[in-house]
Write a structure and sequence with these properties.
Elements lengths: L2 H40 L18 H19 L1 H6 L4 H13 L11 H23 L1 H13 L1 H6 L6 H20 L4 H21 L4 H22 L4 H16 L4 H4 L13 H4 L4 H11 L2 E3 L5 E3 L15 H17 L14 H28 L4 H20 L3 H7 L1 H39 L1
Antiparallel strand pairs: 1-2
Helix pairs in contact: 1-5, 2-4, 4-5, 5-6, 5-8, 5-19, 6-19, 8-9, 8-17, 9-11, 10-11, 10-17, 15-17, 16-19, 17-19
């Protein structure tokens, strides 16, 4: 009777060892890629693509943030923690200044100096992807999903740079994971409170880091609440932790916007902007979308000057929304763009920031993404009775549609789609497990029939 317990214990220990090994391997991989990118820049192997600090032109925001990071690290050293925490800048820039401030005596600014922060983001994203996939489809699917995300070339490359995207992806995945946990588990009031507070912090961070996402986040949280209520009705019972979690996230969504003035010193870009997010929030929905679409038609150079964006990176730039009806009529096209762009006709044309090779890589990645999207349908089918899987589908669909409506620049689309793409990978990993399981069962059935036939003979 004790054998199954011992085997289960050994299996759990083996899994913990495997996870620990994979985390170390992922960390080594990320540091190695960062070192490679830095060396390419340092020795100017591709001077048109990577600067001497390792900052890539495909992530040109880092050039603008470089001076701010150095300035913040000096403030931390000379004026102390309080001055550093309240100095007007963006939150992700503040985080990137920490390792430089601690090691500025020995190092100057480059992507190696900010690698500790990027490594934390990278490992956190992989851990959250693993936990989400494991909770929906099992341990092996969690490993498959985490490996796909961790080895995805463009994602891996972007996480070596100084961007706000890794922080945004991390906190958005925290929100999704928390809702999935609430839907799948009976939470104690204490665990529900802790989960709610953590989700509240993630919601606040999203508001600070990328204010334009707030409307989409409101819809996502509203959907989560409806699914939680549906789960309670279906099971005809409610856990105290579920109530606590729901109350906290609703209260956070209501209260956080009222303190917007307190967040401004965490959102100060100190550069010219075509669209000011806080002012755009005061517009109607169609005016917000229209203003942001116009904003994506411009880019900033190394000196912070606003210039027209590369025409080859734009899509549907002539589309304008004058009413809600115009938006509704454009939704089918927006869904197509959100899920399938950049389209094949853009894969072999040279991009201004990423060049020909960058476009080819994006084309290969899009082909793989199409495969993942197909596998995701099988993953959804295998978990069709699970509300958590439908929550992921709704978040993916909302994100893809919103991006298709708002973003008409493919470079921005590629980066902003990562949070929703990661959720798509999770469903795709579930699809792989589903198909593999069906194939294995089919083979076992054939073996059983063959054995039965031999026995009868």
């Amino acid at each position: 009777m004790q054998t199954p317990v011992r085997e289960t214990s050994l299996s759990a220990s083996r899994r913990r060892f495997n996870l620990g090994f994979l985390i170390v391997a992922a960390a080594i991989l990320h540091v190695s890629v960062t070192l490679t990118v830095f060396a390419i820049g340092r020795y100017q192997l591709f001077p048109t693509q990577v600067y001497s600090t390792g900052v890539g032109k495909f992530a040109s925001d880092g050039i603008i943030y470089e001076g701010q990071v150095v300035e913040l690290s000096n403030i931390f050293k000379n004026d102390g923690l309080r001055a550093w925490a309240t100095w007007p800048t963006q939150l992700h820039v503040r985080f990137y200044s920490i390792p430089l401030a601690l090691g500025s005596r020995w190092i100057s600014f480059n992507i190696l100096a900010i690698e500790p922060v990027n490594l934390i983001y990278y490992l956190a994203i992989l851990a959250l992807v693993f936990k989400l996939a494991e909770s929906l489809f099992g341990y092996k699917s969690g490993l498959v999903a985490a490996m796909i995300v961790g080895l995805w070339p463009s994602f891996l490359l972007h996480t070596t740079q100084m961007l706000r995207d890794p922080l945004l992806i991390s906190v958005l995945l925290v929100v999704v994971w928390s809702v999935v946990v609430c839907l799948k588990q009976k939470l104690s009031w204490r665990w529900g409170m802790l989960l709610g507070i953590g989700t509240g912090v993630a919601i606040l961070t999203i508001r600070i880091v990328r204010l334009p996402v707030w409307t989409l986040l409101c819809i996502i949280i509203g959907t989560a609440v409806l699914l939680i209520v549906a789960q309670v009705i279906r099971e005809k019972r409610v856990a105290s932790g579920t109530v606590a979690f729901t109350i906290i996230i609703i209260a956070t969504m209501v209260v956080v916007p009222r303190f917007q003035s307190s967040f401004r010193n965490q959102q100060e870009t100190r550069i010219n902007r075509f669209v000011i997010p806080e002012e755009a929030q005061k517009l109607t929905i169609n005016e917000q979308i229209e203003s942001r679409r116009k904003g994506f038609q411009y880019r900033m150079d190394e000196e912070g000057k606003i210039l027209p964006a590369d025409d080859g990176s734009r899509i549907d730039s002539d589309i304008q929304f004058h009413s809600v009806g115009d938006i509704i009529r454009h939704v089918p096209r927006a869904i197509m763009i959100g899920f399938f762009a950049p389209f094949p006709n853009m894969w072999l044309s040279a991009g201004k920031q990423v060049g020909f090779s960058g476009r080819v890589i994006s084309g290969i990645e899009m082909l793989l993404t199409y495969m993942i999207e197909s596998l995701a349908l099988f993953g959804l089918w295998s978990a069709r009775k699970n509300l958590s899987a439908w929550f992921l589908v709704i978040v993916i669909g909302l994100g893809a549609t919103a991006l298709g409506l708002v973003v008409n620049n493919m470079g921005a689309m590629y980066r902003l789609r990562y949070p929703f793409w990661a959720l798509l990978v999770i469903l795709g990993a579930g699809g792989i497990s589903f198909l593999f399981g069906r194939f294995r069962n089919h083979r076992l059935d054939q073996v059983d029939k063959s054995s039965a036939r031999d026995f009868s003979i």
